[in-house]
User: What shape does this take?
Amino acid sequence: MNIFIDVAISMAFVFLLFSIMVSGICEMWQMLKRKRAHFLREALEDVFNCRQNKNYAHLLYAHPMIDRLKERKQTYPQYIPSAIFADALIDVIRNDSKLPRFRFDQEKKEFVVLQDAYSVDSTDASGNVLAGTGVVADFTAAVEELKESDLKQMLRTLLLGVTNYDQLKATTARWFDDYMASTTTWYKRYLTRILFISGLVVAIIFNVDAIHLAKSFYKDKLLRERVVDAAIQYASNEANRPATPEAVNFNSAPEKISMDSAVQVNVDAVTAAYRRAELLDIPIGWNIERVVGYKKYPQFTVHSRWLKLPWFAWELLKYIVLSLAGWLITAAALSYGADYWFNMLSKFISIRTAVKPKEEKK
Assistant: This one.
């Protein structure tokens, strides 16, 4: 029983170290590429880039209220408050129908500029001005001028039961919050795929074969004990607990941190994890002995290597095919993240601590 627990601890520790590497690499890539901001832009493009009419997403991002949310000139905002989005969208749609139009006057032989005036707020039976009704009237007219499309249907839905600007803004902001909740779910799925792909790349580069590792830990007692001791020492220090990644939520602003400091923290974490894995001397990495097999390795001498390249290529192909399942398992494990594997490692160590005294009494 204790052997299986020790193997589980060893595997969890290895997955933890390489999860730190994968998570750090992915976080740096997201920050440098500003993937969150681009993903938000793409999500809005899906709705507001209307082929039948025009690219209203571009107009939204050009609107001063949203444009001022950018950190730099050549980037996109990482977060748009729903109230600001609602104001910008209403203004963009409303103004689009009020843009100047040109007509050629045959008598004067010149172009005449035509521009519609904005609607004024209506009044009730007592003569009181109903604030915001003029904006709704302009917005409704602009929507009706659009060609039939999914966007027009959506904007028409926002107008249901709306009589003034405050109601239109609240309805639009509520729709945006719901859409951002869906966008958050899509982005989390995207990150899971990125973590899996990154984990697979790391597993192949460092040749981290989960099946081969499990067999090695089970058969080699000295290796297993060395890794378990290192894992217990590592987990006992709470300072080694990986930082819980910030929860992705497009409904709230991300934490403001310096890119330079964040990149440096991730570089240090990746470097430390790699060095620790290297010091454990676990059976990972690429070498000729593992590829051709320890029994066949003596035949692959320095003098005969060039003559046996076709044979080596065949052995390498077989090795890759046989290792593929182990790499995929490693990639799937690493996609869970470093925080998950630290918690699992702590649980396995607790089980080992509880089980060992009972076995000693027997």
